[in-house]
Design goal:
Elements lengths: L2 E6 L2 H13 L3 E6 L1 H4 L5 H14 L7 E5 L3 H14 L6 E5 L6 H7 L4 E4 L4 H14 L7 E4 L2 E4 L4 E4 L2 E3 L3 H12 L5 E2 H8 L4 H21 L6 E4 L3 E4 L37
Parallel strand pairs: 1-2, 1-3, 3-4, 4-5
Antiparallel strand pairs: 6-7, 7-8, 8-9, 10-12, 11-12
Amino acid sequence: MVQLLLIADLASSRSDLAARLSAAGVTLRSMTAAQSAEAMTGSDQTGQAMAAEALHAGADMVDGIVIDCPDLRGTALPLLRGLRQTGLRLPVILLTATPAPGEEAEAFNLGADAVLGRKAPAATLLARIAAIQRRAPARKAATLRCGNVVLDRASSTLSVDGQPVEVTPYELNVLDMLMSARGGVLSKDRISEALHDGDAEAAAGVLRVFICRLRRKLAERNADDIIRTVWGVGYRVEAPAAAPGHAASHHALPRPVASGSVASGSGTPAAARA
């Protein structure tokens, strides 16, 4: 079954399209774009805020995103830019009535996969998403970058200033989730559920330990301090505030009993702080 995230700037617009998509058998997540932008000024800030909220709404866990915001330049385009800046590679379709001159071209330049009329049939939306997925199998091979830290999904490798960092598959997956949601806070339960088939309780202590280990490995390579703890909630990745290569030096953690490699996930430290 297809799962979509529907983002609309008006509740009435959202409910109308949601009814059509639900009737076509689509499982929907939804959010109202205006909620993210009320207190923001400037299109870049607005787009980043809305993208962070979209990730919280499950943008990284669906088959595609439909943005139904008639004001392309004021809402849809900043949101689209923010989503692509996080590294999100899912199909994104914009719905609009009549785009102003240049808006449709700008939408494609920012990473839109299609721009359709607001009354497009649900079947047309689903056919477009299916076609996009067939044409773009390489979307999963994206490279995520934050500061001097680079995660290459194609080769499942992590590097700092071009120097490889040996990490376990679990550590790589944790960082992938955080970097994909760059700027947004991911709860500990959400990360654990995603990486342990919904069993968050079994992974509660493991996540904390591996975050500590990941921070230490990055610090040893003089990485920017990109992983932040949001106390009582979870973690987020954000661009470094200080000059590259200096922020992480303050956060080196005690060396665990044994460190893991890509080939082995053993050696969990006895005590860690996250």
